[in-house]
Amino acid sequence: MVFSSITFLYYFMPVVTGIYFLSPKGFKNSVLLFASLVFYGWGEPKYIIFMGVSILVNYILGLLIEKNSNNPWSRRWLVVSVVFSLGMLGYFKYADFLIENINYATGSSIPLLKVVLPIGISFYTFQILSYTIDVYRGEARAQRNLISLATYVAFFPQLIAGPIVRYVDIARALESRQHSMENARIGLRRFLFGISKKVLIANTLGELCTIFAAAQEKTVLFYWIYAIAFTLQIYFDFSGYSDMAIGLGRIFGFEFLENFNYPFISKSITEFWRRWHMSLGTWFRDYLYIPLGGNRTGKSRWLFNIFTVWFLTGLWHGAAWNFVVWGIMFALLLMSEKLWLGDYLRKIPGIISNIYVMLIVVISFVIFDAPDLGAAAERIFSMFGMNHMPFSDVQSVYYLRSYAVVFVIAMIASTDLPKRIAERIRKTRHGEIAMTVAEPMVCVILLLLTTAYLVDASFNPFLYFRF
Q1: 458 and 412 fall within a common domain
Q2: DSSP string across 211-262
Q3: How far is CA 323 from each of CA 99, 339, 379, 394, 456, rounded to the nearest angstrom?
Q4: Is there a catalytic annotation at residue 317?
Q5: How many domains does the chain have?
Q6: Which of 277, 317, 388, 430 is an active site residue?
Q7: Residues 171 and 207 in one domain
């Protein structure tokens, strides 16, 4: 099941919310857990088994880690947790990738396992690891209530595509949390803004990317239209999902940390990655980069730590070499900024440094979206006119004009300009009253437009589901 569906909007969510708020306090986690299992198993119920096994095994390991906190067995049980969790992720996500590369390197013909990747396993695996690692570090108590731990791992708002929620951040809320009409209002507003970003902007840009992929004749202009469209699509797709998850969490009394902070206004790649998919960045920082030594080591080891983190970040996104190259590309850029380029970027006009960032980001997402490295290279060469094709034609201009309004809306909405305008309006004499009146009207209009789109359209993918 997906958030951006009539089934979720008008059946699942109203029923779950009604039952949740009518249930006694002691049963609220049980309601959320049952709803989450229904949500997750809607398309492929068998994958509930793998998630359930992972939860049960790490529930037991968490208790063993805490029980042996004063002896070496605590570390050994943590190693078992890490090996088990990463082993499951590795089997489902990377087994066939490994076999393919062994076959290519050795000329052998080992048959592929054709393993199907369970939805959301990359996200819930990292959440489980944050739990057992935090228990080992003494930053959190082991959870005695299996239902509470399972609710944390399987909670449907952020189960499929994040944000990655650390156990220590919501451990208290799992036991006791506050509900209010104000929280419900804020959560619902955030959800509606998120689903509108996903359905009205990301899906529309995704249709353009699909048209590009199917086109027989392409031009330099069409390649750039596609590259920019996909960059905006993946931002609104993923940030929209994060908004929906944060909003739904707020309705049920949980306050998740932000996952995006207007990354396209960044003046450096370093800043970009502090603003994009922040929950993943902080996870790798806290559980890999800092344990490796971070920047508290010699320069060569420091650079090695950066390279390792970004190699694995790329690999986490997908079992393909273009994802690895994507991660290494950002590792090299971040190294260069930390060594010398960062000082230069701080001295030049902000508009120039922002153009540098956006050029890199657009090219990087062309690599990210490509089916393989060969296709990525072909697309990038074509963007810069290296494949002997015309700069433009009637078809390219037609699609540019047809989607111009969506492009303009998406570009403005991806910055903090709307937020700054709203804040300025609120500070005027009658601004607070005007915003209070306008907010529910805007929410209703967005809901109606989104519903109309979902009823009429068949194109409704979530890009991050495949990771």
Answers
A1: yes
A2: HHHH-SS--HHHHHHHHHHHHHHHHHHHHHHHHHHHHHHHHTT--PPPS-S-
A3: 17, 24, 15, 34, 34
A4: yes
A5: 2
A6: 317
A7: no
pTM attached to this predicted model: 0.91
Domain end, chosen from 148, 177, 206, is at: 177
Instruction: Please answer whether residues 288 and 130 qualify as being in contact, where contact means their C-beta atoms are separated by less than 8 angstroms.
Output: no
Q: For residue 130, what are the CA distances in angstroms to 70, 124, 280, 286, 290?
A: 20, 10, 12, 9, 14
Q: Which of 54, 63, 239 is nearest to 128 (CA)?
A: 54
Instruction: Per residue of the chain (467 residues), give pLDDT as tens.
Output: 788 888 899 999 999 999 999 999 889 999 999 999 999 888 778 889 999 999 999 999 999 999 998 899 999 999 999 999 999 999 999 999 999 999 988 888 899 988 888 888 999 999 999 999 999 999 999 999 999 999 999 999 988 876 889 999 888 999 888 888 899 999 999 999 999 999 999 999 999 999 999 988 899 999 999 999 999 999 999 999 999 999 999 999 999 989 999 999 999 999 999 999 999 999 999 999 999 998 888 889 999 999 999 999 999 998 899 999 999 999 999 999 999 988 888 899 999 999 999 999 999 999 999 989 999 999 999 999 888 889 999 999 999 999 999 999 999 999 999 989 888 888 887 788 888 888 889 889 999 999 998 887 665 555 555 55
Q: Within this chain, do residues 319 and 267 fall inside the same structural domain, yes or no?
A: yes
CA distance 421 to 438: 14
Q: Are 164 and 200 in the same domain?
A: no
